[in-house]
Amino acid sequence: MRFFTATVLGLLVPSLAAASNLSSATQLAVPADFKPPQVFKNTNLVRNTNLEKGYVRETINVVVENIDKQSQSDYYIPFPVDVFDRVGGFEVRDKKSTDEGRFEVDITEPVSSSGTQYFVVHLAEPLAPKAQITLGISYSVLKSLTPRPAVIQQNEKQYLTYSFSAYVPSAYQTVTQKTKLKFPSTDVPDFTETSGLKTGADPERKGATYTYGPYETAKVAPGTEQPITVRYQFTNPVITASLLERDLEVSHWGGNLATEERYWVRNNASELANQFSRVEWTFASYQKAPTSAVREIAYPLLPGSVDPYFIDDIGNVSTSRYRPGNGKTAANLELKPRYPIFGGWNYSFKVGWNNDLSQFLRKVAGGDSYILRVPFLQGPKMNEGLQYERVVIRVILPEGAHNVRYETVEGANSNGLPGANQINASLSSFKTYMDTLGRTTLTLEVDSLTDEARNAELLVTYDHTLMDTLRKPLTIFGGLLTVFVATWFIGSIDTTIKKR
Ligand SMILES: *[C@@H]1O[C@H](CO)[C@@H](O)[C@H](O)[C@H]1NC(C)=O
Ligand SMILES: *[C@@H]1O[C@H](CO)[C@@H](O)[C@H](O)[C@H]1NC(C)=O
Ligand SMILES: *[C@@H]1O[C@H](CO)[C@@H](O)[C@H](O)[C@H]1NC(C)=O
Ligand SMILES: *[C@@H]1O[C@H](CO)[C@@H](O)[C@H](O)[C@H]1NC(C)=O
Ligand SMILES: *[C@@H]1O[C@H](CO)[C@@H](O)[C@H](O)[C@H]1NC(C)=O
């Protein structure tokens, strides 16, 4: 476990409680003509591309062999510079022992000569010459699907296109490889058919799964492209949050965890050819016909969530419904925007609710330390998925909280988050009424996430002493005392005009 530490000391010395950085994303410097050393060979590579959501999800299993004379531990994975920033939740594991967690990953600066940027995977143990390891690489690529036609009628089906290379981009020679595409349905009107890359039909089609390859590519130079474009039906919204701000406010006094989320959302679906027709919409809704517009946003909440609200730019949205869970079952917030959100339309709103803090906070026995365990991301849960260009999470801790550290919880599978070194973390203080030091606030910034991170958890530990607890009442008491003493003093001054 790696903790990112920074200490906000100065319990009584406010000037020391200033912000200090936990960690921020850094890029490895590389020369302008950088090429990864050719120390590995991919003996077999299988890429699974999932197109069932509004973003692309890839998992690659690759058998890697060390062809160098020395042990090697840095494996490079290239992306074109313009794609690199849209790669989300990137992680790599040893496929044979996934429960040992992800490998550490760094990112390089863009390499200007090749227009490439690399993820550098640091294997947990150097791979000996001639030895092999199977890497499981997974990530999402945001904003890579384009609606075609770009403009449709209100009740028409929607089609998306996706372009990629049949030869998987790699820094190393690849002996055999194939790509399996999973479409949302069998309605795939257009797809590239290759010729001369392999014997037999390419792609091979089976229901909603199309397979390009296997190809024998031992003699193909790494980086060679074989462009493929597919067009398939996706009559669903393509929801993109350009920004999500998520605040979690911890109150020891109130025993409360208050959550507020502010969304700036856009539907990246086909735009409407004509003006929106309410009559047609009502009819289609009545028939529950599929649509590329956002009709409703399903937002599950944890059991025990109370006082939910849903406010958009105009005000309180009363068309939403809240079904509180009972006891152990999840609660559900059904958000109905004022109007359906069609392709190209924006919508911004905020939602919030409260929870009993004891569900999330634990005091470490015999100390002044606390452990807060909260969802990293919550957000809507919908079949078509949701992509976040940028997420800013603020954990607002009680006044005086110090020695703040955080980590994300890792399981045997991907939690949808990038490595810790791609999350910017910083501490600051947030002042509200009657605060003397301001509340210690941990801010985490992540780019390119998807709803896959919905199950990720965040652990925040901090110290908070009795003095910290009493600071606010003492401040208030001190304030009252001052007023009282002043009043008493003024009152006791003899202001009567005495006769001399
Ligand atoms: C924190 O990081 C920012 C840039 O991300 C930098 O400007 C600032 O000086 C850093 N602060 C400290 C205390 O290191
Ligand atoms: C989707 O919408 C965003 C705005 O949030 C825009 O920047 C982006 O280019 C759009 N993506 C596509 C594929 O149309
Ligand atoms: C907002 O709407 C909800 C649902 O109709 C209602 O229960 C609540 O009282 C409203 N809140 C305000 C502040 O108007
Ligand atoms: C929608 O939001 C994006 C930023 O997310 C902005 O660039 C665009 O101008 C907005 N479009 C409209 C129609 O307001
Ligand atoms: C993190 O901080 C660095 C340096 O300040 C900045 O370049 C980068 O865009 C930030 N990343 C995120 C996810 O906010």
Automatic annotation (TrEMBL):
Known InterPro entries for this protein?
A: Ribophorin_I (IPR007676)
Record's superkingdom?
Answer: Eukaryota
Provide one Gene Ontology biological process annotation.
protein N-linked glycosylation via asparagine
Does the record carry Aminoacyl-tRNA synthetase as a key word?
Answer: no
Q: How does it sit in the membrane?
A: Single-pass type I membrane protein
The residues the entry assigns to the signal sequence are: 1-19
- Function text: Subunit of the oligosaccharyl transferase (OST) complex that catalyzes the initial transfer of a defined glycan (Glc(3)Man(9)GlcNAc(2) in eukaryotes) from the lipid carrier dolichol-pyrophosphate to an asparagine residue within an Asn-X-Ser/Thr consensus motif in nascent polypeptide chains, the first step in protein N-glycosylation. N-glycosylation occurs cotranslationally and the complex associates with the Sec61 complex at the channel-forming translocon complex that mediates protein translocation across the endoplasmic reticulum (ER). All subunits are required for a maximal enzyme activity.
Q: Which family does it belong to?
A: Belongs to the OST1 family.
Annotated protein name in UniProt: Dolichyl-diphosphooligosaccharide--protein glycosyltransferase subunit 1
